[in-house]
Specification:
about 300 residues, alpha+beta, Rossmann fold, Tumour Suppressor Smad4, ten-stranded antiparallel sheet, four-stranded parallel sheet, globular, transferase, kinase
Length: about 300
Amino acid sequence: MPNDTNKLQPHILFVINPISGDVQKDDLELKIRRLSMELQFVPDYYFTTGDNDEHKLTAVIEATSPDRVVAVGGDGTCNMVGKVLLYEDIPLGIVPLGSANGMARELGIPTDTEEAISIAVSGRVDLIDTLQVNQSHMSLHLSDIGINAAVIERFEKENIRGLWGYARQYAKALFEARPIRFTMDIDGQRIRKRAYMAVFANASMYGTGAVVNPKGKLNDGKFEVVLFRPYRFAHLLGMLVSFFTGNIHEQEYVDVYSCRKAEIRNSRKHVVQVDGEVIGQFEEVSVEILPRSLTVVLPK
């Protein structure tokens, strides 16, 4: 906790997910303490348990008034901390130590732990948009319904860790996928289409580096609905390549709609994921942009 002798030094609260990804965190506190002497800040810690973390973290922040809060983990940890800091003046820093680190990648935060800590403590701050999903959930970068959400659900149920396990599950899902009939209301425009997946993209890429929304920006007051319509088997290789060359939006079976609000209905319930975490199965999904709602720390 901060005291009188270091009250002029910034108070940084590190929110650490001890089980995220395949990354060992045994020496993490040692690195933070060493950097705190070098960069002149006062570290504090909250370790997630999966038991009402959002409420407990809110209480810690109210009691300690940190200058910055740093999410140490993957996208799920970033989402939880970001939701607590929504519309607050306290910046969110990120140290990417999860299975997928899409938000960190989007913000240009390096995977080197000490570099990321340095940026979280002394980087510049800026406001970004977030997405409200089904009224009660917040998305920082990407949410979806369809293939990817189903893979993440399987990923969680089988307790698989790491990008290789995810890639194997995804490849299997591509071959087994069946299109969903979507009825969409996008900024008042009614659209009906069959698709394997609908992505609600505030940002541009997944933690794997797959670029699903090349024109996505975190601060433009809009988000994109990206539809992956039925494709031929021969298109699979081209699709996989285009994910990593930044031109997926140019493929004939991909539709992109830029909007501020979208409502999507399905004929039956399907799995929905938000920032890499499954939130349940839904027949209806509503998504709305929350402009400039979160302060984040970026590299200088």
